[in-house]
Specification:
The protein is an alpha/beta fold. It contains eight helices and five strands, in the order βαβαβαβαβαααα. Strands 3-2-1-4-5 form a five-stranded parallel sheet. Strand 4, helix 4 and strand 5 form a beta-alpha-beta unit. Helix 6 packs antiparallel against helix 7.
Length: 153
């Protein structure tokens, strides 16, 4: 079963949830939470939706987390959630006015792809130049055979 967490189910978050329900795969569950409980509750019963006990619960039970809160609430919320994010999480922001730079400052700057995923993604895209910078960083102090063993093969 796939679980997508939605933190913030006001006008924008609620509209996104309703849109996904129109074409949701059968194994998808949306786990929703909003600081205004009624905003999340109004979505219950309209499809495969469950309500999280809090934003921390949504993060722990989801692999993809959509954050749709007001910009004034973003920093406080993300400071609480940042330590809970793991490599398995994909965090998607739909917060108006919150820049990527501020998200990086709040969440850290981990790459979205693992080195081996980035290598293959760049090769499939026909973009070997883009793969050279991460390769050079990896090879700093390591052998080429280690790169092949851990990344390229």
């Amino acid at each position: 079963m796939s679980v997508v967490g939605v933190i913030g189910t006001g006008n924008m978050g609620g509209a996104l949830v309703k849109g996904w329900l129109r074409s949701a795969p059968p194994d998808l569950t949306l786990l929703v939470w909003d600081k205004i409980e009624a905003a999340a509750e109004r979505l219950l019963g309209s499809g495969p939706i469950a309500m999280g006990a809090g934003p921390e619960d949504v993060v722990s039970r989801s692999d993809v987390i959509l954050v749709v809160v007001k910009p004034k609430d973003a920093e406080e919320l993300l400071k609480v959630l940042a330590p809970l994010f793991e490599d398995r999480h994909i965090v998607v922001s739909s917060m108006a006015g919150v820049t990527l730079a501020s998200l990086r400052a709040m969440l850290g700057d981990r790459p979205a792809l693992k080195p081996e995923e980035m290598f293959y993604q760049r090769m499939l895209a026909g973009d070997p130049r883009e793969a050279t910078h991460p390769a050079r960083e990896f090879l700093n102090g390591r052998s080429l055979s280690t790169y092949y063993d851990e990344i390229a093969l």
